[in-house]
Fold these 2 entries.
Entry 1:
Amino acid sequence: MTSPGTNHDCCAHHSHHHELVIEGLTVCYRNLVAIEEVSLATSCGNRVGLIGPNGAGKSTLLKAVAGLLPRTAGTIAWRGSAVRKWSREFSYLPQREEVDWSFPITVRGLVEMGRYPHLGLMRRFTAADAEAVEKALATLGIEDLAGRQIRELSGGQQQRAFLARAVSQEAHVLLLDEPFTGLDRSAAASLASLIGALAEEGRLIIASHHDLESAPRLFNQVLLLNRTQRAFGPTGEVLTAQAIDSAFAA
Amino acid sequence: MLAPFQDPFFQRALLAALLIGFTNGFFSGFVVLRRTALSVSALSHTMLPGIALGILVTGALTQANAFIGALAAAMFVGLGSVVVSRASRVAQGTALAVLYTTAFAAGVAILPLLDTATELEEWLFGDITSVSDADLWIAFAIAGIILVFSNLFFRPLLLTLFEPSVAAAQGVPVRAMNYLLFGLLILALVASLQAVGCVLSVGLLVAPAATLSLLTNRTQWLFWGGALLGAAGSVGALLMSWHTGLPAGPSIVIVLGFFFLLAFLLSPKYGLLPRMAAAAHRSP
């Protein structure tokens, strides 16, 4: 069950789903190969978990898909056309420690940033933009927190604020870097159900994750990664004891 | 009470204080968000030898010469600190401190040798009461450039400051935005030279937004509130200096520093005293 990247052409014709197809993605830092030959094909509505040990290249893969890192080789296609560098329909949520939480910005200000790619430099922030922001806040259930500075939120609320930004951006592909890290059990459970709801609305969720035990509950597809791609497919088929051993042993 | 407003020198000084206070107060938002107050201080000191060299080479002091000299010196010291830190074990902050104090000292040493009417003290601490009509036009032009460019590029600049990597992934030319900020910063410093001199210019470029950051979490207010505070503080300080005889430049920075102290102590949400009162209330 490795890289089913070859049969996507026929699927695209017969399904209304938007497809994300990654082929042969390789990213190098100077002389170091961070990830090599990653290929996968998935579509909207799925929750894809990137699983692997520390340093396996999970964040690198997410950042390369988001356009934060240059690709050394490989292609990314979204809805049938190549993504050269970045796409407005992708939204990347950084790891917690990469965010400047003391930045003087409110939750609403953060969610408004999601409209910037639509607005460009000159266009005014219209009533329609304000409505998109309100809707995003409501979708993630954080209307009451809109006036708070982002540090004055709990970990789960912070993740929801960033997800709300992705929703106001009208992103179809959500690239989440370790979204469950540092959350307590109930915050993780509510984040999981929100992510499930976002996927059901037709978004594609791709999240790095390091906890094998909770992975089957959170994701319906899994990419097992340890610098090279070890397996990709439905969670139940990929997360076998043998595959896990091989990915985590190397 | 109205006497100062009838003096044409003072009228020009007030207008200059209003323009420079407003513009630099606005721009201080970027300095505070970028957390580069210390390197701004280094740059402001670096301008002195740059301007001195500009006069030495061209033989005349104009705002254009001053700007080019200041820009060249700032680039030289800024890039120099990067080169030194990459080519040795010295940290960049350390290299910057050595380079800018050396450059500043060179400026102080060169200035008396130059054939200009401007006194050293004026360079160091400014003299807003001696602005000419031409100076006012320059201040007006600089204010226009800074306000137009920083508002035109406000969204990409904000994204760049908050999350540079995400900004890049959304197609923001992050490097160009950083150069834009650097260029506008040098312009703002050149403008404030006249008002408060190179030693104190950093006060005008940090204190207003730093004060606002204690009062609000709304990013926009950091900029527009900073602009209003910078303008009000500069004009108020000028009036105070007319009545008390205190020098104008230092008065401006003192007043802005006083505003900051007030906000630090009294801000309803983040002030020291309200927080202490709330803590005392919780644990009787």
Note: The mean pLDDT of chain B is 87.
Entry 2:
Amino acid sequence: MHIKTEAIERHTLAVTVENEPGILARIAGMFSARGYNIESLTVADVTEDASISRITIVTKGPPAVIEQVVAQLDRLVPVHKVIDLTELGPHVERELALVKVAGAGDHRIEALRLAEVYRARVVDATISSFVFEVTGGTEKIDKFLELMREVGLVEVARTGVAAIARGRQVI
Amino acid sequence: MVTERTGADILIETLADLGVEVVFGYPGGAVLPIYDALFRQKKIRHILVRQEGGAAHAAEGYARSTGKPGVVLVTSGPGATNAVTGIADALMDSIPMVVITGQVPTALIGSDAFQEADTIGITRHCTKHNYLVKDPAKLADIVHEAFHIATSGRPGPVLIDLPKDVQVATATYRKPAASGAPRQHKSYRPQVKPDAALIEAAVEMIAAAERPILYTGGGIINSGPGASQMLRELARITGAPVTSTLMGLGAFPASSGQWLGMLGMHGTYEANMAMNRADLIVALGARFDDRVTGRLDAFSPKSKKIHIDIDRSSLNKTVRVDLPIVGDVGRAMEDIIKLWKGRAHAPANLQPWFAQIDEWRAKKSLSFPESREEIMPQHAIRRLYEATHARKPIISTEVGQHQMWAAQHFDFEQPNKWLTSGGLGTMGYGLPAAIGAQIGNPDALVIDIAGEASILMNIQEMSTATQYRLPVKVFILNNEYMGMVRQWQDLTYSGRHSESYSEALPDFVKLAEAYGWKGLRIENVDALDDGISEMLAYDGPVMVDCRVAKLANCFPMIPSGAAHTEMILQANEVSGEMDDEAKALV
């Protein structure tokens, strides 16, 4: 007997929640309990009084599973709204990565040159290392890291995706 | 000046203000202040169970039979963990329940203190919502909110974890607003009223159907007795046949000519065939559970489907439907009925459809081999039904073959009379549930139809029944096997009965007597009716050890992973060993 798999899609969800203790465990736990994927999850409070947090979740699954993910999130008591940004239309996705590259000679020069192409900033430098700050979509950052691997990448910290719909529309 | 009161007093006062009459519980170190507050008041009755799991199931039985939320009070650590099965059971079957657990003092949380468990963490995914209360001033609001969440939308268990220092600390208590209207919750707003345009579409689809079927579930029971009335009216004006899940039995009267019986794995042939061949399924407060659908890609392939449910996540979860409607099922049916009548729709000509259904009925899928040598378990339930149905009994069950036989052979005319663990399938549910039902319905005849294996899982609750003089009847269909396990081993594993024999059973008659109950044994067919009469005549709790055919299996049956049309009607159609794909299915 073999386990069957289905075609999958990547969706970015914006979730607003009551900023209360355990809310992140509730959401992350729901994903693991129901076997859904989390590609990335970011959270921070976004209102003046810090009462509401916005969570951006990137998830992958067949369309029916994505629909279930949205419905399951929506029925958690402290959840205000769940918006499937991918479904909604054009939106901006950004993440930030801090990328440490170590090395000397040509690799160092090449790393700086590539960083310029990717508009990465140098935020720390020593004789034998750089730390670059790069922002962009997940794909751009993946590509940047792929190139940096060639020239001495030693460590990465990524924030995960924050996303917002384009245009006037407010969720 | 308003005097301050302790958290424990605030809790009890709030419960009383919310109309709570009964609490099922068990004391312990972390709830001593609450038990002292209970001791000093007269409004709330406490029912002392013998294990916290019994409290949770008793609260479920109370809730299911009265329509009111069940309330549980247990201590920290093992008190809470023992209650977890009943909480998970209530979540699966959408039973309104509020569970109050004691917790170690706030300062000790996280220190691995005596009887500490991370109750909030453990119950996060088996409650609808839970709270850790750290401030007695917030307690009353949280209790109100918990009852609102437990009883509205899709009902379910809500847990409040109350550290001991918060029970002792003081705050002022404000009575809730006199209007009694629930406060608007910040983020929780279940959609009760269905979208009018969707209702209109539903009416058109029902009016156009030639082979409609109403597929009803526990949501109708949860929506209240009004919803059962609406279902009867909807069936009357549309003329459509009605089937129900295990959880929905009683919402529609079994005596109606439109009743097809239960559907699903152990449902009737006519119900499953009608689902398969229908051109329109109207799912009402049911959730297309795997026990109902059988193999999904073969489930009712040619029908249009309308699904009405208050839980949006139930829609399109397992079966794609043509018209999903979010809303209270009773409300939605009321809207459909109004519109149907407003447009003066007449029932379509369903004669050909019912003629087809009658052919399926002629298979008599619930028939079973008669025997003079042994008591057939189905026969025992039929006789029990005949002897008791005039008294409109409340029936609870444990889980297994006896449960399915009870669902098949005990007919219900009214909602809130059938208490069974459907979603979680918890053995040991029936006795405490019967106790809870008897507390909520002191004058009702309450019978737990049990198996000899299940009953032992919460046998300690006999003592609770004795203490409160509850005249519950436990009718054990004793075949000396965990029958459903053995049945699956017969079907799937060539009859290799691995650990499914009930070895070393107690003498149930002596056991009954030891607990102060009446004990009875029925050993042959001729003694069956007299035994049942004797059970019913006794004014007090009775345990009946009814020795039934040991190897009878429960049919009809759709094997796991099979289609509705591949139903096994009789035991001799069963083959020995199944392939790995079948073995992997539940």
Note: Chain B touches chain A at residues 120-121, 124-125, 128-129, 132, 149, 154, 185-188, 311-313, 315-317, 320, 579-581, 584 (CB under 8 Å).
